[in-house]
Amino acid sequence: MYGALKARIMWKVQPGFDRGNLFVSKSCDGINNWHQLGETTTKSGEFIDTKLIARGRWDEAYYKVEIQQNGQRYTSDVISTFGKITRSEFAIARVIMQHEWETLRQFTPIKFFKLRSDGERCTNCMDEDTGQKVGTSLCKVCYGTGFEGGYYPALDSYMHIGQISSKIQDASREGVGASDPVTIRVRMMSYPMMENSDLIVSPLSDKRYLIDTLDYGFFNGKVPVHAEVQLQLLARNDIRYTLPL
Ligand SMILES: [Zn+2]
């Protein structure tokens, strides 16, 4: 199964195989380049891969579990972050996603900034002795993530803007000039996997949005093939406008 940033790999061991060393391995294509993620005991029955996102990019990941016991190595079936899908299901999903891409690229180009979950620790807002955050405003170095830069390098993609809604300006309200929240509904690719607070930038207008709500469309109820996303326009004075494109 997959969460937004983590994958939980679970297994059951046949009786008699519960004394060996157990390894979880990962590969990007399920065929080659397997690398071992960690050794654990057979008792725990699960392993959490917290590095599902590499270099800010979400890719499909494949896993297998191996047990070494009495000099023999026993290997599980390969599973992917899409769960148990057949090769033909995956092939069809690929075609759908390719078509989605061809359609979306006729619309608005975007830069997708994924919020950092690892990297160099920010020294601007973190007290080095206590590891606690200092200050209450959003840090201009890490944008509140605690990691320098705040975001992984941007990925280029496209969105199709559907409905735009905006609150009617109330002239009597305090804080004249503050822009009211504008919400847009867009259609986007299903990858990289998005999370609330990831940043979407339209480089042509430099409008910057936070992801508000997200719904994936699935093929066969298993493979995410597109996303319906609600975006919240950031106010012009938001610190996230200082992020270089
Ligand atoms: Zn910071």
Characteristic terms for this protein:
single chain, 245 residues, Thrombin, subunit H, 2 domains, five-stranded antiparallel β-sheet, 1 helix, 38% strand, binds zinc ion
Q: How much beta, percentage-wise?
A: 35-45%
Q: List the total number of helices.
A: 1
Summarize the main sheet: 6 strands, antiparallel, barrel
Radius of gyration: 22 Å
Overall structural domain count: 2
Mean pLDDT level = 80
Strand order of the largest sheet: 10-11-12-15-14-13
Structural class assignment: mainly beta
3D architecture notes:
With 245 residues, this protein is mostly beta strands. Helix content is 7%, strand content 38%. It has one helix spanning 87-104; strands at residues 7-10, 21-27, 35-40, 46-49, 53-54, 57-58, 62-69, 72-75, 79-80, 108-113, 155-166, 182-188, 199-202, 207-219, 223-233. The strands form four sheets. It has a six-stranded antiparallel barrel. Strands 2, 3, 7, 8 and 9 form a five-stranded antiparallel sheet that branches. A two-stranded antiparallel ribbon has the order 1-4. A hairpin with a 4-residue loop joins strand 13 and strand 14. The longest helix is centred in the middle third of the chain and has 18 residues, at 87-104. It starts with 6 loop residues before the first strand and ends in a 12-residue tail after the last strand. The model is unreliable at 54-58 and 168-179 (pLDDT under 50). Bound molecules: zinc ion. Zinc ion (ZN) binds next to loops.
